[in-house]
Amino acid sequence: MAKVYYDDDADLDLIKGKTIAIIGFGSQGHAHALNLRDNGCQVVVGLRRESKYWPEAAAAGLQVMTAAEAAQAGEIITLLVPDQHHVQVYNESILQGLKQGKTLVFAHGFNVHYGQIVPPTDVDVIMVAPKSPGHMMRNLFTEGVGVPSLIAIYQDVSGKAKETALAYAKGLGSTKAGVLETTFAEETETDLFGEQTVLCGGVTALIKAGFEVLVEAGYQPELAYFECLNELKLIVDLIYQGGMEYMFFSVSDTAEYGGLTRGNRIIDDMVKDEMRAILSEVRDGSFAREWILENQAGRPQFRALRRQLVEHPIEQVGKELRAMMSWLKK
Predict the structure, then answer these.
(1) Dihedral in degrees, nearest 10, Cα atoms 111, 117, 118, 119
(2) pLDDT per position as a tens digit, 181-230
(3) CB-based contact 8:64 (threshold 8 Å)
(4) Which candidate among 58, 167, 176, 236 keeps its CA 20 to 30 Å from the CA of 276?
(5) What are the residue numbers of the active site?
């Protein structure tokens, strides 16, 4: 069993006297900055002068400056811009301010693991990766609840990198929920694999396939939407609450029997073989190289695939149906 770290395992005072520079103020950046600030840490936010987030961060009572200025001021520097902008921001704004004895923090290991960022050898390099979208992390923090986080140590020059990571995780509120230790490689590879095969890729492909089969067979698109997409949230909520056993306990015996006897016909050995191939592409760097080149080329395939998704019939039907659901937040 992996060791889980909680409040008593972390000392927030280790980072309270240090300036923490949060580079970026999007989903993760705003949550890191505000949670750390509310837990008594000294936080500055680094942004482009033209960033739309500059007035938002200032209105939240945070000290805002350029990314380069924040990197100079920060003893702990956290890079929280999107992955595809890491290298440019790091080279242009952070590297010069990354002096000996400082700590560089990531929330995802992609660019370090795949060699796009090579930190100086005289700084601590750690990861603190909350397992939650930033807005949910912030909302739960304000309710006195934390979200789990992963920590990883890439370079431990000071001999206290792990203690710093745990203190930082406590500042986010994560030690209330539990913190697990991993490595940059393990976090990156499992994260990419999960996104591609299950969470983002696999689920959406399964939804679209089910919808298409029903509509092709002559059923109403609206019914197909409810059966293949809308009800998915109810099922996922049950699994999240009590696992797959609890979900099957909560549905009808007919649904349970049908799921148990037919599910493996959909997700069969051929699917698992394809998952293994995708995992190999993640582990050997093939996917990373593909994504880096896609960005360098201006994202032509990415934009085309986005457009195809928006134009899919299930998205058109869904917009009409969701417009009638007054309880959904816009």
Answers:
(1) -100
(2) 999 999 999 999 999 999 999 999 999 999 999 999 999 999 999 999 99
(3) no
(4) 236
(5) 108
Sequence-separated (6 or more) residues with CB below 8 Å from residue 61: 37
Note every long-range contact of 260-265, with CB atoms under 8 Å and residues 24 or more positions apart, other chains counting.
Answer: none
- Pull the structure tokens for residue 330: 């816009």
How far is residue 206's CA from residue 191's CA, in Å, rounded to a whole number? Answer: 20
The pair of three-digit structure tokens given for residue 65, joined into one six-digit string: 């400056």
d(CA 81, CA 83): 6
Taking the C-alpha atoms of residue 62 and residue 166, their distance in angstroms, rounded to an integer, is 23
CA distances from 97 to 72, 277, 298 (A): 4, 41, 30
Give the residue from 223, 104, 238, 115 showing the smallest Cα distance to 164: 104
SS3 assignment for the chain? CCCEECHHHCCCHHHHCCEEEEECCCHHHHHHHHHHHHCCCEEEEEECCCCCCHHHHHHCCCEEEEHHHHHHHCCEEEECCCHHHHHHHHHHHHHHHCCCCCEEEECCCHHHHCCCCCCCCCCEEEEEEECCCHHHHHHHHHCCCCCCEEEEEEECCCCCHHHHHHHHHHHHCHHHCCEEEECHHHHHHHHHHHHHHHHCHHHHHHHHHHHHHHHHCCCCHHHHHHHHHHCHHHHHHHHHHHHHHHHHHHCCHHHHHHHHHHHHHHCCHHHHHHHHHHHHHHHCCHHHHHHHHHHHCCCHHHHHHHHHHHHCHHHHHHHHHHCCCCCCCC
Sequence-distant (6+) residues with CB within 8 A of 271 are none
pTM: 0.91
The tens digit of pLDDT for each residue in 81-96 reads: 999 999 999 999 999 9
Strand partners for 45: 22, 64
